[in-house]
Amino acid sequence: MQTKPSLLCRTAAILTASSLIITAPLAMATVDDAHSFAMEAAMPFVEQGFIVREDYWNGEVKSGQKLMVKHQMFKGNEYAFWLGSANSNVKFELKIYDEKGQEISIESKTSGMFASSRVNPPKTGTYTIVFSLASEKENGLFWALAYGYR
Question: 80 pairs with which residues across the strands?
């Protein structure tokens, strides 16, 4: 005697298939992924005593477009900025400038899915963080910029 699948089994199979179809587009890169990579860049700095701030900037940007963030920094603190992208094969640029347009970055590094820049501001004031991401394959790039200090 052949048995028919129960209604419960058929419903479960339909729900499973539907959830795979619905979640498939979500497997793409997101700004949350970009933030995760920025936090990965922060790990060596945390080991050196940097405190990571909870607030950060993020979004999507056209490949090659420069973005700018103004940020208050205080003399006597050392700051690190971490730029992450959820897109692979991205070329990063991350620089920090004083009010006169002079670059104050002490050290900048790029590695895989993120870049970092460390600064020791010469005086208390508002500084400008300028960054860009570029890709030969993708036009819209997800990014997150986080920072910390010690």
Answer: 118, 148
Q: How far apart are CA 148 and CA 31, in angstroms?
A: 19
The sign one gets for the Cα dihedral 19, 21, 26, 28 is positive
Residue 111 CA neighbour count, 13 Å, CB half: 12
- At 43, phi and psi to the nearest 5? -55, -50
CA distances in angstroms from 114 to 8, 42, 97, 98, listed in the order given: 47, 10, 20, 23
- Sign of torsion over alpha carbons 109, 68, 83, 125: positive
Q: What is the pLDDT of residues 5-24, one digit of tens each?
A: 554 445 444 444 444 444 33
Domains of the chain are 29-149 (2.60.120.380)
Closest CA to 53 of 32, 28, 81: 81
**Nearest of 146, 143, 145 to residue 31 by alpha carbon:** 143
**What ranges in 26-135 are assigned the alpha helix state H?**
31-47
Task: List pLDDT tens digits, range 76-133.
Answer: 999 999 999 988 889 999 999 999 999 998 888 888 899 999 999 999 999 999 999 9
